[in-house]
Design a protein that fits this description.
about 110 residues; mainly alpha; 3 helices; two-stranded antiparallel sheet; 2 strands
């Protein structure tokens, strides 16, 4: 790895670690499903960073599948998809929850 890659991974690991730590702290204090999915997104995002580093250093190897004519790592594909998917689910749950609050408070336009 080049020096710039080491600096890049170090920054990603430090910031991702802080995000994952704060997300786990939030996880212990909330039982709201929408926030839980944001926590899942943060933790899986950090695990993707760690996995990419381990893969780059040669500590792990993955199986590849052919997708659209290109070989892609199954694990890397999953770790790339899950954080965004969890954020989408969290936002949908938040929208549903705020919609229910508006209807119960009488603010909904009908």
């Amino acid at each position: 790895m080049t020096e710039s890659e080491i600096i890049f991974f170090t920054i990603k690991l430090v910031l991702g670690g802080i995000i994952a730590f704060l997300a786990i702290m939030l996880w212990s204090r909330t039982r709201d499903f929408s926030w839980m999915f944001l926590v899942f997104a943060a933790v899986t995002g950090y695990s993707a960073i760690v996995f990419d580093l381990l893969l780059k250093l040669g500590f792990v190897h993955t199986k590849n599948i052919i997708l659209l004519g290109k070989e892609i790592s199954i694990v890397q594909l999953a770790l790339a998809i899950f954080p965004g998917l969890f954020v989408i689910i969290a936002f949908i749950l938040m929208l549903i929850k705020t919609g229910k609050k508006e209807r119960t408070n009488g603010f909904a336009q009908t």
